[in-house]
Amino acid sequence: MQAVGIVVEYNPFHNGHAYHLKQAKKVAQADVVIAVMSGTFLQRGEPAMVDKWTRTQMALAGGVDIVIELPYVYSTAPATDFAKGAISLLSAVGCEAFAFGSEDGSIQPFLNTFELINNHRTEYNALIKDSLKTGASYPKSLYYAYEQLSQKFPASYIDLAQPNNILGFHYLEAAKALDLPIQPLTIPRITAGYHDALQEDAPIASATGIRKALATSHSLQSVQHVVPETSFQYLANWQKKYCTFASWEAFWPLLRFTIMRHTPTELSRYAEVTEGIENAILKAAKISQSFSSFMEKIKSKRYTWTRLQRMLTHIYTGFTKEQLQSFQAPSFVRLLGMSAVGQAYLGQHKKHIELPLISRVAATNDAMLAIDIRAAELYNLSIEQGSTDYILPKDFQTPPIRF
């Protein structure tokens, strides 16, 4: 059985995701689709709107055969490390190819872009440093360096201002850097761009657009036309039980408490908290009644919204710089769910999986896994606050979902 891998967050699983996984299976001529999915906290430094078990159910209902978890260490990391963690796990479970959605839609410009940067790495890094000295953010400095190189050595390259192209490039870069025997494939993104708002007459929307629509209208019916019926039902069940979807705005009371119980020196211990930003974070938390007002006080030209959110995620979960530096690569494969086809694949390939395959978490002692469990417990705490009727499943007790 041949497997194609995809890297996902499914926040939530929508019609565009359904299209992507079907195309990935078709283009790769694969029998099995394996998704490596972020857990409770995501790459842009925010809590997933529903927990990983609900999103696993959406994925399996939508056609994914196996869902494995991208550990917190990588799911909340900058794009380079996010990609390394994800692609190494897909390779470890035997995927011959991985397929990603992109604005470009063709793999050759990605390969050209990789060769451009890889062959001129010293000049590229020097251009980044020059840009950073002007006070530009790191993402803008990367783009500046890329633009300078691409003008100097013209060819067919990708647009690295587009979010899916950026992630796709890092996936390909990770596979090359780690020398993994896994083929990169790309599927053109259709209809909706990453940041586009919902269109009433369009059946496909971005996950960002869906979340914004829900935050504005507070009505699931407003997004029903852009998600599969199964996803809609899982979202409706969640809303009925917990009343709200997870967000930093909903988590603000606990996040604010977590920040304020620390000194600036203590805050500086957490991953990605640098250059004295801890002082501004603590000062703003003391006077902000909402997450949005807090962010407005601390954002700046140097710190992107995403980078700040990742800092706050690490503060909330207690993830330190020391812990981050102690991990070099994924140490396990955690199985979240599988279809009958996925189960058959694992039966055939289990002996060849390069990392321990974990389904019974309670019986495992792994430092990286312990961080995932802690993150899930703190996520659950914010969801359950004020509720005694509905308690989320305990992460360390929950077995893989069989679909």
Architecture overview:
There is one protein chain. This protein has 403 residues and is α/β, with parallel strands linked by helices. It has three domains: 3-103 and 329-402, Rossmann fold; 106-161, no CATH class; 249-325, no CATH class. It is built from 18 helices and eight strands. The longest helix has 18 residues, at 367-384. The model has no long low-confidence stretch (mean pLDDT 92). Keywords: ATP-binding, Cytoplasm, Ligase, Nucleotide-binding, RNA-binding, tRNA processing, tRNA-binding. It catalyses: cytidine(34) in elongator tRNA(Met) + acetate + ATP = N(4)-acetylcytidine(34) in elongator tRNA(Met) + AMP + diphosphate. ATP binds at residues 7-20, 101, 164, 189-190.
State the CATH architecture of the largest domain.
Answer: 3-Layer(aba) Sandwich
Largest sheet: 8 strands, mixed
Label the structural class: alpha/beta
End-to-end Cα distance: 19 Å
Binding site for ATP: 7-20, 101, 164, 189-190
InterPro entries: Rossmann-like_a/b/a_fold (IPR014729), tRNA(Met)_cyd_acetate_ligase (IPR008513)
GO biological process, one term: tRNA modification
GO molecular function: ATP binding; ligase activity, forming carbon-nitrogen bonds; tRNA binding
Write the layout of secondary structure elements.
Layout: E1 3-8, H1 15-28, E2 32-38, H2 52-62, E3 66-70, H3 72-75, H4 79-92, E4 97-102, H5 107-119, H6 121-133, H7 138-152, H8 163-177, E5 183-188, H9 207-217, H10 229-242, H11 248-260, H12 264-267, H13 277-287, H14 291-298, H15 305-317, H16 321-325, E6 333-338, H17 340-349, E7 357-358, H18 367-384, E8 401-402
Parallel strand pairs: 1-2, 1-4, 2-3, 4-5, 6-7, 6-8
Antiparallel strand pairs: 3-6
Pfam family, one: HIGH_NTase1
GO biological process, one term: tRNA modification
Keywords: ATP-binding, Cytoplasm, Ligase, Nucleotide-binding, RNA-binding, tRNA processing, tRNA-binding
